[in-house]
């Protein structure tokens, strides 16, 4: 038995929750993974996984073994990376996690530039909203939106979102553009449901020290920003989103901002997160520096320049069905 390969397959299967996921990561067949993991279990005299139709679950022995062998594999990976660093060539597989909308609209357009700079790094992008998501164990670097409580990670804010209220020219022509935030209540507004499960149906604004809010309604809500965004592009209603994510659509005139003289409150920051032990890994360091570069460029290009840090709402991080309900409970 190739013990080192078996350990790699075991860790991958534990992180992916399946032999098929481990096989995809290592680009081998599922039977090859299953065979080596079974041989590892036989050599240890202990079952590492409970197998079911829903996938793999670590046994108590498996959890202890993973905790023991993971640091050894990390040290080996660090040694390999140190050799690569000495040769000046960051290389290897890098798993990057983030929300679909920001990966697609902010990072994806810049990735050819990253590949030209670091051709020996292989990127694997995964849709992840929080470090506690199921896919998060396999991620090396996160670019996440929001205020994240992640004490086990290095967390660096790299950009500040600024909320904008947008609709297509056709929608504004048909329904008129609001002059005050409260007027949004008579419009069709599409609400985003955040990763904590709260529907963000309370849009709050500030101007010259005065605050005003709108409890918005519409026929569509989703935890997938792309769906709301596409509906707005089709002229079906209004969305509130980060200006960093929609700069291109605004420049092309496909979406037009409203209430530009009001400051939309509670726009979350964008941060890069990674585990402290991966700080010195060249490919991790290369991507972190690149992500900072990408988002700083977006901030510079935005109208009005870099935004001030926004205050975290009191209900953030706790489940509420609706943000408007959370606000009423605070009063």
Low-confidence parts: none
Please state how the strands of the largest beta sheet are arranged side by side: 4-3-5-15-6
Query: What class would the helix/strand composition place it in?
Result: alpha/beta
Q: Radius of gyration over alpha carbons?
A: 23 Å
Q: Can you give me a brief rundown of this structure?
A:
By secondary structure, this protein is an alpha/beta fold.
Topology (SSEs and partners):
Blueprint: H1 3-16, H2 19-26, H3 30-44, E1 49-52, E2 55-58, H4 60-86, E3 92-98, H5 100-107, H6 111-117, E4 121-127, E5 141-145, E6 154-160, E7 163-167, H7 169-175, E8 189-192, E9 202-207, E10 210-215, E11 221-222, H8 225-233, E12 238-242, H9 247-251, E13 256-258, E14 263-264, E15 269-274, H10 282-301, H11 323-330
Parallel strand pairs: 3-4, 3-5, 8-11, 8-12
Antiparallel strand pairs: 1-2, 5-15, 6-15, 7-12, 7-13, 9-10, 9-14
How would you describe the overall organization of this protein?
The protein is of the alpha/beta class and 331 residues long. The chain has 2 domains: 1-88, Winged helix-like DNA-binding domain superfamily/Winged helix DNA-binding domain (Arc Repressor Mutant, subunit A, Orthogonal Bundle), CATH 1.10.10; 92-331, D-Maltodextrin-Binding Protein, domain 2 (3-Layer(aba) Sandwich). The chain is built from 11 helices and 15 strands. The chain has helices at residues 3-16, 19-26, 30-44, 60-86, 100-107, 111-117, 169-175, 225-233, 247-251, 282-301, 323-330, and strands at 49-52, 55-58, 92-98, 121-127, 141-145, 154-160, 163-167, 189-192, 202-207, 210-215, 221-222, 238-242, 256-258, 263-264, 269-274. The strands form 4 sheets. A 5-stranded mixed β-sheet has the order 4-3-5-15-6. Strands 11-8-12-7-13 form a 5-stranded mixed β-sheet. Strands 10-9-14 form a 3-stranded antiparallel β-sheet. A hairpin with a 2-residue loop joins strand 1 (49-52) and strand 2. Helix 1 crosses helix 2 (19-26), helix 1 packs across helix 4 (60-86) and helix 2 (19-26) crosses helix 3 (30-44).
């Amino acid at each position: 038995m190739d013990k080192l390969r078996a350990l790699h397959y075991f860790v991958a299967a534990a992180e992916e929750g399946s032999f098929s996921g481990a096989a995809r990561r290592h680009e081998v067949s599922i039977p090859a993974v299953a065979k080596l993991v079974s041989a590892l279990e036989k050599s240890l005299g202990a079952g590492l996984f409970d197998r079911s139709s829903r996938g793999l679950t670590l046994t108590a022995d498996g959890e202890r073994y993973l905790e023991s062998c993971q640091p050894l594999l990390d040290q080996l990976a660090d040694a390999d990376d140190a050799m690569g660093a000495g040769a000046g060539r960051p290389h290897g597989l890098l798993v990057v996690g983030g929300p679909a909308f920001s990966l697609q609209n902010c990072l994806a357009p810049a990735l050819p530039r990253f590949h030209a700079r670091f051709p020996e790094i292989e990127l694997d992008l995964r849709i992840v909203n929080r470090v506690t998501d199921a896919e998060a164990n396999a991620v090396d670097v996160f670019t996440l939106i929001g205020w994240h409580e992640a004490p086990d990670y290095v967390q660096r804010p790299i950009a500040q979102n600024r909320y904008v209220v947008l609709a297509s020219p056709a929608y504004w022509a048909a329904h008129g553009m609001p002059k005050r935030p409260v007027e949004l209540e008579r419009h069709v507004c599409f609400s985003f449901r955040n990763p904590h499960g709260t529907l963000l149906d309370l849009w709050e604004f500030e101007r010259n020290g005065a605050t005003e809010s709108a409890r918005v309604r519409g026929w569509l809500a989703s935890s997938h920003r792309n769906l709301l965004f596409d509906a707005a592009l089709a002229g079906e209603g209004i969305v509130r989103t980060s200006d960093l994510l929609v700069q291109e659509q605004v420049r092309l005139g496909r979406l037009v901002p409203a209430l530009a003289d009001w400051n939309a409150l509670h726009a979350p920051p964008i941060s890069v997160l990674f585990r402290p032990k991966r700080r010195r890994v060249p490919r991790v360091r290369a991507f972190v520096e690149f992500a900072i570069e990408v988002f700083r460029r977006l901030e510079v290009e935005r109208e009005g320049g870099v935004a001030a840090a926004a205050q975290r709402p009191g209900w953030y991080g706790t489940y509420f069905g609706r943000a408007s309900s959370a606000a009423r409970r605070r009063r």
